Amino acid sequence: MSSHGRSSKIENVQTELLSDNWYVLRKFTYDLIKRNGERQPQSREVYDRGNGATILLYNRPKKTVLLINQFRMPTYVNGNPTGMLLETCAGLLDDDSPEDCIRKEAIEETGFAVGHVEKLFECYMSPGSVTEIVHFFAAEYDESQRANAGGGVEDEDIDVLEVPFTEALAMIKDGRIKDGKTIMLLQYAQLQGWLA
User: Fold this and answer.
1) CA dihedral in degrees (14, 44, 49, 180; nearest 10)?
2) Of all residues in the chain, what percent are helix, strand and coil, respectively (each to 5)?
3) 167 Cβ contact partners less than 8 Å away, ≥ 6 residues apart
4) Are 10 and 29 a contacting pair, CB within 8 Å?
5) Could you give the angle at the alpha carbon of 84 between the alpha carbons of 22 and 170, nearest 5°?
């Protein structure tokens, strides 16, 4: 029988603030009450940077997608020699709705003012340590929607790339695309046959 519907119970939750420098890092100590009634003390560090949104911008007639290339320090620390990462447009919600956030990010990062955005799904991206839920969107783009050159704001230094869809899929396979949300969106588009 599936344990999908079963909820673990936790008791005696204690919270300790470890860092409130950029985002919020807390240590949680608690007792996990297991299915058999056994009490197991556990502690976990939880990083809260808010929720985010990402979007696949695609052009059916040209069979292309818009990707951005930007420096990501955590990837540099973990073996990415340049620190540059090819990704779909994305950003943190702050106080915006997911739809408003991703329209704003699309203009800032890619330069395209997309109208209708389609919500595909949402998911926890790193549930072992990060609270973040990411809302996934897709929208078609064409040159008539270009509002500016893109490239990001303030401290961002973003290159915008228009990539043939077949090449983007090949880039997953050969490791040029290593970003989780981007791989998920490209594979979603492939499953839907949008750019077949």
Assistant:
1) -160
2) 20, 40, 35
3) none
4) no
5) 130
3-state secondary structure of 192: helix
- Residue 195, number of CB atoms within 10 A of its CB: 20
Which are the contacts of 7, defined by CB distance < 8 A and separation ≥ 6?
A: none
- Count the neighbouring beta carbons within 10 Å of the beta carbon of residue 100: 14
In angstroms, the CA 108 to CA 92 distance is 13
Backbone angles phi, psi at 43, to 5 degrees: -140, 140
3-state secondary structure of 74: helix
Q: Mutual orientation of helices 180-192 and 165-174 as an angle, nearest 10°?
A: 130
Q: How many residues does the chain have?
A: 196
* Nearest residue to 92 (alpha-carbon basis) of 181, 157, 186, 185: 181
**Measured between alpha carbons, how far is 33 from 46 in angstroms, rounded to an integer?**
20
pTM of the entire predicted model: 0.91
**pLDDT of 5-57, one tens digit each?**
556 799 999 999 999 998 999 999 999 999 889 999 999 999 999 999 999 99
Q: Which residue intervals of 91-142 are DSSP H helices?
A: 98-110
Name the 3-class secondary structure at 166: helix
